[in-house]
Every structure is written in C-alpha cells, then in structure tokens.
C-alpha cells in the first residue's frame, strides 16, 4: 500500500501557525509518528505553498499510488485547477482538514475538492491524517 500525503500552503508552518487552531506539533514530527504507527504502509509526504506544484504532484503520483491524502489548505476553497487534477488522475483522493472548516468563516465552507474526493475527514486535528490512512486500509 503506497500512499502520498500532500499538504498545501502554510502547512509548512504547523506547530508555529495559529496554535489555538492547528496545534503545537510540526507536521514532520507527526509524520514520523504516522510512519511508526503504520510500518507496512509506504508513506510519503510532500508540501508546497504553490498551487501549480500541488497539481504537478497530483499528476505525478496519481496513476500508480494507491491513494492520495490531500490537505489543500486555503486552495481547497478556491482551486478549480486542483479539483480538475483530481478528476484527471485515477488514484483516489481523500480530502483532510485539521480544523472543522464548517465551524469557521463562511468562505471555508466551500470546497472544490469534496465533489471529486473519495471522502472527506475534517475537524480531528492532526488525527484527521491518521483516519484517512485507516480509510485506505479498511
Ligand atoms: C485547513 C483549513 C483551511 O481553511 C485553511 O486555509 C488551512 C488549513 C485545515 O487543515 O484545517 O490552511 O485546510
């Protein structure tokens, strides 16, 4: 089982960024824990602040990985291009968010990812990623 976690803009600042919303853990630390918890899963991680790079990565892995776990962050609410990339590839994509976006500003209630995702997991903090991995193992 080969899974790619893709994180979008500002998620490189996890641990420092609005800790009251996103917590105190860096993604690198959490990713280490995920790898320990799921030793049989080939887990990779990619982060970019650039929309086109996220699209590029989806295209790159989207025909031979078993799954993509995508937190497109702010691009979730704006990016027709990322939505189209997900539609173009064959690998299923699970959309994740750390926060419950539906409890937040109205502009975060819209997702260009959800209509083309296999499923959506949000609001469980970093555990959302763990649950997304489990969804591929079920
Ligand atoms: C986020 C929610 C988005 O609205 C926000 O722009 C983010 C992070 C989340 O994981 O909760 O950067 O995707």
What's the gist of this structure?
By secondary structure, the protein is α/β, with parallel strands linked by helices. Helix content is 33%, strand content 19%.
Salient structural properties:
138 residues; alpha/beta; Rossmann fold; 5-stranded parallel beta sheet; 5 helices; binds 1,3,4-trihydroxy-5-OXO-cyclohexanecarboxylic acid; aromatic amino acid biosynthesis; lyase; 3-dehydroquinate dehydratase activity
Secondary structure layout:
Layout: E1 2-7, H1 19-22, H2 27-37, E2 42-47, H3 51-61, E3 67-71, H4 80-88, E4 93-97, E5 119-122, H5 127-137
Parallel strand pairs: 1-2, 1-3, 3-4, 4-5
Helix pairs in contact: 3-4
Bound molecules: 1,3,4-trihydroxy-5-OXO-cyclohexanecarboxylic acid.
The site of 1,3,4-trihydroxy-5-OXO-cyclohexanecarboxylic acid (DQA) has 10 residues, from loops.
Give a description of the structure:
The protein has 138 residues and is of the alpha/beta class. The chain has a single domain (2-137), classed as Rossmann fold. It has 5 helices and 5 strands. It has helices spanning 19-22, 27-37, 51-61, 80-88, 127-137, and strands spanning 2-7, 42-47, 67-71, 93-97, 119-122. A 5-stranded parallel sheet has the order 2-1-3-4-5, with helices on both faces. Helix 4 links the parallel strand 3 (67-71) and strand 4 (93-97). 30% of the residues are buried. The protein binds 1,3,4-trihydroxy-5-OXO-cyclohexanecarboxylic acid (DQA). Residues 10, 71, 73-74, 76, 97-99, 101, 108 line the site of 1,3,4-trihydroxy-5-OXO-cyclohexanecarboxylic acid (DQA). Substrate binds at residues 71, 77, 84, 98-99, 108. One of its GO terms (molecular function) is 3-dehydroquinate dehydratase activity. Pfam families: DHquinase_II.
């Amino acid at each position: 089982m080969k899974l790619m976690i893709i994180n979008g803009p500002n998620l490189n600042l996890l641990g420092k960024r609005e800790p009251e919303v996103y917590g105190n853990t860096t993604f690198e630390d959490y990713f280490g824990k995920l790898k320990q918890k799921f030793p049989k899963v080939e887990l990779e991680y990619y982060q970019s602040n650039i929309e086109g790079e996220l699209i590029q990565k989806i295209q790159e892995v989207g025909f031979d990985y078993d799954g993509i776990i995508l937190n497109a962050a702010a691009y979730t609410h704006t990016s027709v291009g990322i939505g189209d990339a997900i539609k173009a590839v064959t690998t299923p994509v699970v959309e994740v968010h750390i926060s419950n976006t539906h409890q937040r500003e109205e502009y975060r209630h819209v997702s260009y990812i959800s209509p083309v995702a296999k499923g959506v997991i949000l609001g469980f903090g970093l555990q959302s990623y763990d649950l997304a991995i489990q969804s591929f193992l079920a």
